[in-house]
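PROTOCOL LOG
Step 1. Enter all chains and additional molecules of the complex.
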Amino acid sequence: MKRTVISLWALCFLFLFSCSNEKKLPIFGERSVKIVKGTDGIDRIDTVYKTVPDFKFLNQDSVYITQDDFKGKIYVTDFFFTSCSTICPVMHRNLKEVYEKFKSNPEVMFLSHTIDFKYDKPSVLKKYAQKLGVDTKKWEFVYGDKESVYTLAEKDYLVAVKEDSSATDGYIHQGWLVLVDKHRRLRGAYDGTKSEEVAKLEKDIAILLAEKE
Amino acid sequence: MRKYILAIVFSLLIGSIILSCQDEGQIEQAKYLTGGKDLYKLHCQNCHGENGEGLGELAPPLTDSVFLAEHKQKLACYIKNGLSDTITVNDVKYDGKMPGFKQLNDIDIAKLIVYITNSFGHKQGMYKYEQVAADLQNCK
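Step 2. Run joint prediction.
Step 3. Record the structure below.
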């Protein structure tokens, strides 16, 4: 009797270990359920996660890019503007390091949205990308009208952005770097001004890349 | 003999006065330096980097000793009023825009100047806050 109890305990521990070893990132955002019919004809309940909706913006080369350009990719996204003199330089200094780390991995991309719809036209974004030293297909800088960019930020990527004439450069926004998986689900948000959080982002990208579909 | 002793005492006195003056100068500079470091972190590091390395071509590095020495009388103006010009730093051209820091007072500006001209490999010595007002008179 005693022996079986002990071996049961051992088994439990084994399970505990095997679970904590398989690292998985959380999935953020609201979720709902839907009924799906399995191949065997039986109804099953499936969880539906919040996903990033379709989008269409002009990039730094004045070419339209959409969600299709990020198909099958993991990407990190943020909201900034080129004349921002406070947190953006730090965010992009840090994000550039992440970019350098994953430069040769075709599955990782970067997407920065400007919130300065008045001034940051594609040509301005182009100059910015060149000066930052990251003007490649891997890091898209995009311009869109206020409505679509601000809605996407707040409703879908959960980043607060706002026009505010009393703020230092005319806008208020949060410095989140948001990690999105291959199924357009939010898997993490990291304060881009803090180097320890950016280090965590790097680690989490690696975990996400290793995750089974 | 008496004359001899007097001479020794006198020269010791002069010597210690000079030494203590130097010490005081150094202590003052050290104070400026630590204050300047905090101000730098708060206002400048985001663009110019922890080690003055700059940020791509968006913000120039602060590692060009010749540029800093040649523009020492202008540094107060750059900090107070910002800078939007075409400048060459470490042989690279920059045409960005640095915001002005109107809220900084003369003593803070002096601390910043002492910090940036005595860090990142520079050793350009003291810059007193009285100098700030004088230099700010000559901004264009």
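Step 4. Note key features.
The CA atoms of residues 103 and 138 of chain A lie 8 Å apart.
Helices of chain A lie at 2-21, 88-101, 122-132, 146-156, 195-210.
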